[in-house]
Amino acid sequence: MTQLANQLGPLPLKAVIGYLVAVFPLIATPGTSLALLAQRVGGSGRRASPPVILGTATGLYVHATLAGLGLSALVMRSSQAFTAVRLAGAIYLVGLGLWTWRTAAATRRTDRDTRSRRRRQPPWTGHSAYRQALLGNVLNPKAASIFLTLTPQFLTPRQPVLPQILLLATAQVLLVAAWLLLWTVVISSAAATLDSATLRAPLRRITGALLVALGLRAAAT
Q1: What is the pLDDT of residues 57-83, one digit of tens each?
Q2: Among 81, 101, 58, 130, which residue's Cα sits nearest to residue 215?
Q3: 4 with 139: CB under 8 angstroms?
Q4: Would you say 104 and 201 are in contact if contact means Cβ atoms under 8 Å apart?
Q5: How far apart (Å, rounded) are the C-alpha atoms in residues 34 and 157?
Q6: Of 95, 66, 68, 94, whose CA–CA distance to 81 is shortest?
Q7: Taking a C-beta distance cutoff of 8 angstroms, is the pair 32, 112 a contact?
Q8: Whole-number pLDDT of residue 178
Q9: Taking Cα atoms as reference points, which of 85, 52, 58 lies closest to residue 71?
Q10: Backbone angles phi, psi at 17, to 5 degrees
Q11: Quick check: 137 and 31 in contact, CB under 8 A?
Q12: Which residue would you say has higher pLDDT here, 27 or 100?
């Protein structure tokens, strides 16, 4: 009975807990998901957080599945493939950041002007917070490296790899969701205290600058 209580699916419970402890500093480091969350929640309230969280979770599952199938290892071993993915992610983040900064000046316009601006929005930036969070994570090779360098340290040898990686990914997704939900409460409370029109423009500029910085860092490393 004790052995069953200490087992969580294909992995010992202590391995899952140890993995969460090890990965939490990486989760707590501000990144694309938090930047998008701040932008969306600051402008639209708490109801805007689920698409960002779901997009982030989907991206993590994509990396976990590819790692379990061995495809991520092929990309990481090929310098050309790794560079291509890294640069694609960097270009996406920089482009998204510049568009976010540019739209900050339009946050106080009428609904008609806002709809017109959205029709002129570059199609590759996407209207969906889910899509932005998904692409921001999928095009981040450092997210893939977690499942190739950190995750194997907590796997049970001589057991199927994919179920173990997916279990650890699920635990990570739950931790990420809890962390982003905590930030949702903080950001929405701050937005409720301040005038939303006053807050939205500077928040978009901060988010845009952060996304550009993340993209430049991704390109340089």
Answers
A1: 999 999 999 888 875 555 556 666 656
A2: 101
A3: no
A4: yes
A5: 35
A6: 66
A7: no
A8: 97
A9: 85
A10: -65, -45
A11: no
A12: 27
| HEC readout, 155-211 | CCCCCCHHHHHHHHHHHHHHHHHHHHHHHHHHHHHHHHHCCHHHHHHHHHHHHHHHH
Confidence band of 155 (pLDDT split at 50, 70, 90): confident
Smallest CA-to-CA distance from 146 within 52, 23, 37, 1 is with 23
Distance of alpha carbon 139 from alpha carbon 141, whole angstroms: 6
Global pTM value: 0.70
Q: CA–CA separation, 74 vs 194, rounded Å? A: 49
DSSP string computed for the chain:
-HHHHTEETTEEHHHHHHHHHHHHHHHHS--HHHHHHHHHHHHH-GGGHHHHHHHHHHHHHHHHHHHHHTHHHHHHH-HHHHHHHHHHHHHHHHHHHHHHHHHGGGTTS-HHHHHHHHHTS-TTT-S-HHHHHHHHHHT-HHHHHIIIIIGGGGSPTTS-HHHHHHHHHHHHHHHHHHHHHHHHHHHHHHHHHS-HHHHHHHHHHHHHHHHHHHHHHHHH-
pLDDT tens digit string along 173-205?
999 999 999 999 988 887 766 555 556 667 667
CA distance 27 to 3: 30
